[in-house]
Structure formats: C-alpha cells, structure tokens
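User: Could you go from structure to sequence for me? I need the amino acid at each position, not a summary. Structure tokens:
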C-alpha cells in the first residue's frame, strides 16, 4: 500500500489479474538434468507501491530435475523497467545472464583456484592473493582458455 495514496491494491477478478500478468518459460536439458525456468511479471501494483521507480513485480521459478529428484526454488523481485521497454522473455534472459556473469567471474577464483579454502587472513595478504588470482585468470583467458576447471 502506498503511504501517500492511502489506497489498497485494487480488487479485481481473476480475468483482470491474468490480463496484467505476463508469463514466459524455458526448458533446458543437458548434463543429465532438466532445468525449467519460469517468470511471471505483473504491473498491477504500479501506483499502489511506495517504491521509487517501481514498474513491475517479478516471480521467478527455477525447477531442476536431476536423477529423478525435483527441486524448485521461487524468488521474487521488483524492477524499474516497464513493459514498454522489455517483456517477460527478455527479463528472464537478463536474470539468467546475470548468473552467467556471476559464475564466470567468481567460479574460477572460488573453486578452480581454491580461494574459498584459503586461510590467509592477516594484513594485505588476502587482497594480494586475490590480485594474483585475477591476474592469472586474465592471462589464461587472454590466451584463449575460457573453460577454467579445477585441478
């Protein structure tokens, strides 16, 4: 509820709610697993939420099936990007791309180079080791080796 307007979210029928909802889903198979990603976006709360720039509410559903075991994770977000600028499909691509960047930047250091296991904690040693890891990864990638794997 907006503090300024004093109005609650407008009541509406399921039909109206569905009109204000945009849905997209992808299914990927590989590496012995199935990953289903879904996104639902709604602009129904615009004007009723006291959040600067609020344009859409988002519900992300990620389902992973591995070895017959199904795991589902649901998360929620908001965005200032309105429907005129992007749709649910593009937002789902953006979210997935964010994790690709996260994995590319941090996995090499965290896993392949053992940064998580490193116990250096004093003075500037952690920062110096991080700089060496970054320089090493940059050098390796500059030579065309993009798939950094653990030893």
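Assistant: Here is the amino acid at each position, in order:
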């Amino acid at each position: 509820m907006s503090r300024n307007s004093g109005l609650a979210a407008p009541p509406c029928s399921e039909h109206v709610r569905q009109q204000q909802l945009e849905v997209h889903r992808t299914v990927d198979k590989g590496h012995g697993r199935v990953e289903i990603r879904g996104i639902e976006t709604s602009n129904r709360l615009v004007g009723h939420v006291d959040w600067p720039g609020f344009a859409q509410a988002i519900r992300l559903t990620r389902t992973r099936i591995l070895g017959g075991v199904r795991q589902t994770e649901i998360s929620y977000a908001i965005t200032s990007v309105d429907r005129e600028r992007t749709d649910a499909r593009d937002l789902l691509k953006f979210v997935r791309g964010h994790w690709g960047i996260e994995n590319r930047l941090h996995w090499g250091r965290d896993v392949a180079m053992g940064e998580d296991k490193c116990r250096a904690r004093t003075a500037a040693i952690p920062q110096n080791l991080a700089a060496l890891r970054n320089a090493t990864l940059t050098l390796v990638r500059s030579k065309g080796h993009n798939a950094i794997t653990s030893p």
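One structural detail worth keeping in mind: The longest helix spans residues 88-112.
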